[in-house]
Amino acid sequence: MHNNITIIYVIYKSGDIFFENIKRLNNFKKIIIDNDPNSDLVDKIKKIDNSVDYTRLNKNIGMAKAANLAFDKVKTEFFLYLTADTIIDEHNVENLLKIFLKYESVGLSSPVHLGSDKTYLGNYSCHPINRFLNRNKTEKKCFKSLSKVLPSGDFSVNTVWGAPILLKTSLIKKIGFFDNNFFMYFEDTDLCDRIISSGHEVIETSEAYCTHYKGISSSNSIIYSFRTMTAFKFSELYYFSKYQKKYVLRIYLHLFDYLFRFFINIFLFNKKKVYTNLFRIIGILKFFFYKKKTRF
User: Fold this and answer.
1) pLDDT per position as a tens digit, 98-132
2) Beta carbons within 8 Å of 31's beta carbon, 6+ residues apart
3) CATH top-level class for 5-212?
4) Phi and psi of 195, rounded to 5°?
5) Do 69 and 146 meet the contact criterion of CB atoms below 8 Å apart?
6) For the chain, which residues make up each domain, given as ranges?
7) How far apart are CA 272 and CA 290, in angstroms?
């Protein structure tokens, strides 16, 4: 197993959770792309595993682009994509690999996600398009209840948490890894869509789990809020422009709601909501003036 799987990471100002994980996966080849130009982690990383292929970039280019740089270096049959806020051990990586041995049609395998208190974080396998579907109160209640039920066995889904995910290198070389136009958010859903379109399945299994420390690598700074909120609105628009153009206008119309909330919260002296709505507006405008890049 250790010779067949490469671990790839994209990190940015990562801390203890990241180092805990690379210690647990010490027997695997590792490729790390550090998006923090001011990072001083290289010595600490090399001290844990001197064989790590580590690259520090001179600017933050986003999750998707950095992950593609790491993928371009993969030589093994499989690779496991990880982020700095999740922990998975060798046993659970092995169970993800078993999914590929069990089903010929699998294109991606993913574990269930547990919180730091070992409680189930909920079923994230809800496709973004579902948010635009009209549901009555009963349907909404059932959907919310089902999302909290810990699944059992292996099940085919539309999309999964972005990491950890195990993929077969040969398939991803054919269909491409992440779309460079995503800075972060929605790149995982886009990947799942392309895997399914290629005739393969995205399989989540309760036989493997990871511990997900949600928000552990986040910051309360204005800069962090600006980066994440603008990226989310931009990526949302870009995603739907690729797959469901009929929803793009609906997202654009949110602009008027955000403008209204922006001015109301100025008068209410609610600084947090002023910034929140301003950053959403900027994200929408950023997409409006964006020139698409190519990757595949």
Assistant:
1) 999 999 899 999 999 888 888 887 655 567 766 66
2) 6, 7, 8, 9, 52, 53, 70, 73, 74
3) alpha beta
4) -65, -45
5) no
6) 5-212, 222-288
7) 27
